[in-house]
Amino acid sequence: MNPWFAVLPLVLIITVLLAGGALALIRRRRRAGVRALLGLNGVLMAGALALLVSALNAAPATAGTGGAAATAVAAATDGSDSSGAALIGAAIAVAGSSIGAAIAVAYTGSAALAAMSERPEIFGRAMVVVGLAEGIAIYGLIISIILIGQA
Q1: Domain named V-ATPase proteolipid subunit C-like: which ranges (predicted)?
Q2: What is the CATH number of the domain that holds 111?
Q3: Which end of the chain is less packed: N or C, by CB atoms within 10 Å?
Q4: For the chain, how many structural domains are there in total?
Q5: Radius of gyration for the alpha carbons in the chain, expressed in angstroms and rounded
């Protein structure tokens, strides 16, 4: 079992307790509570960075010592640096486009609901605008499929 998975529940419990303590501290002393939350965010960011570095530096797993499988794995991992970068690029493309689409749908959806409350007959046109905003996420998904295909 990977040691990261064994430690993860403990890290989550400690994070929730520390965040709750920081929020309680904000209610009493605002400045000290904000400093505590910023410190907690810094510790979590450092841990996430350490996890990312260890994941990027990890050697690929093999299924054993025997023959053809080990040769196929070795042949597939020759370009692992470029494939890892392509996969990270695909993740960034999906995450960025999804966040952008969420923001766009939030604004267009609220405007469409406000307009439909005054004139219900414009439902179709309002949903087209919301659908166009959701298209941003589809573009990111297409880019990620292209990147994964090249990896």
Answers
A1: 88-147
A2: 1.20.20.10
A3: N
A4: 2
A5: 23
Three-state DSSP at 52 gives helix
- Domain identity same for 81 and 149: yes
Place of tokens 């990977």: 2
| Total residues belonging to the chain | 151
pTM of the predicted structure, to 2 decimals: 0.48
61 in a domain, yes or no?
no
Mean pLDDT across the stretch 79-93? 78
The answer to whether residues 95 and 146 belong to one domain is: yes
Indicate the residue type of 94. V
Helix (H, G, I), strand (E, B) or coil at 132: helix
Tell me, yes or no, whether 29 and 83 share the same domain: no
Domain assignment of residue 98, given as a range? 77-151
> What is d(CA 5, CA 2) in angstroms, rounded to the nearest whole number?
6
Handedness of CA 78, 55, 151, 88 (dihedral sign): negative
Residues 110, 117: Cα–Cα separation, whole Å? 11
Digit-coded pLDDT (tens) for 9-37: 777 787 777 777 777 877 888 888 788 77
φ, ψ of residue 2 in degrees (nearest 5)? -65, 135
